[in-house]
Design a protein that fits this description.
Helix content: 10-25%
Structural class: alpha/beta
Number of strands: 3
Radius of gyration: 14 Å
Largest sheet: 3 strands, parallel
Order of helices and strands: EEHEH
Distance between the termini: 29 Å
Shape: globular
Oligomer: single chain
Length: about 110
Amino acid sequence: PKPWIVSMAPAIESVVAYYAAPQDSEFRAVAGRVQLHLAEFDDWDPDQPQRFARRLAAGGTLTEVHVYPGTSHGFANADVRGVYAATAAELAWTRARRFIGATPARAGAA
């Protein structure tokens, strides 16, 4: 399933997504808050992740974006040799746990 498919479920309170930047034609509003973890280098149009985040925010979705300098797609996957970035992966995981555990009023604090 596509990672943004959860956006169609209205009961979702929080979404944490790694490497998520759906095309404009695939965009769906998200009822809950969204935290994105993005590599500095990826295969998509360099503006696509920020465009996605802006569309979420414009629709009223509390959106938090983290870009990890020097990383490539898959940086948080320890099984991907040559791409895995332990420091960035740990920071992303810490942020994700804090975001999921936060109440919506506290979610914007990074």
